[in-house]
Amino acid sequence: MRITVIDAGNFKLDGGAMFGVVPKTIWQKMIPADENNLCNWNMRCLLVEDGKRLILVDTGMGDKQPQKWQNFYFRNGDGDLIKSIRNAGYHESQITDVILTHLHFDHCGELLPELRRKFCFQHSLMPNIGLTLAIGNGQ
Q1: Do 12 and 38 form a contact (C-beta atoms < 8 A)?
Q2: Fewest C-beta in 10 Å: which of 10, 36, 100, 102?
Q3: For 56, phi and psi rounded to 5 degrees?
């Protein structure tokens, strides 16, 4: 099995939204905020090669949403899902499965049409005992 980290770019999000009730004096030591209280986050996906399967875990946020929506999240950096897959020595057409860990925009936003037919969704039914339901392409 080979696991490759795929850089799908960066975006900014309010630190308070990410850390909730944790005081800023604690989290800003690890993740500094800018003057607007925005923290920069990297969207890392995984590409898992296991035998004849090439599995993409998460897709990043993509850029197919309207520009007004994009402006809220300040995409930045050189990371790009497709470019990163190709830089890792693969082509997106080789992907056999896509697993989305959850449906937040920064994990599923770039579920491109060519990847949608390979999509698997995992739902944790009983996380305390590790029981998971996977719905996907039937393979």
Answers
A1: yes
A2: 36
A3: -100, 125
Closest among 117, 119, 116, 122 to 102, alpha carbons compared? 122
Helices (H) and strands (E) counted in the chain, each on its own, are 6, 6
Give the CA distances from residue 16 to residues 25, 27, 44, 132, in Å, rounded to whole numbers and listed in that order.
11, 9, 21, 30
Contact 97, 55 (CB under 8 A): yes
**CB under 8 Å to 31, separation ≥6 — which residues?**
15, 18, 39
Question: Are the C-beta atoms of residues 108 and 42 closer than 8 Å to each other?
Answer: no
Which residue's entry shows tokens 């998971």?
A: 132
CA distance 134 to 26: 37
Its pTM stands at: 0.79
* Angle at 43 (CA atoms; ends 73, 86), nearest 5 degrees: 120
Query: Higher pLDDT residue, 99 or 114?
Result: 99
The pLDDT tens digits for 64-79 are 888 888 888 999 999 9
Q: What is the pLDDT of residues 1-14, one digit of tens each?
A: 999 999 999 999 99
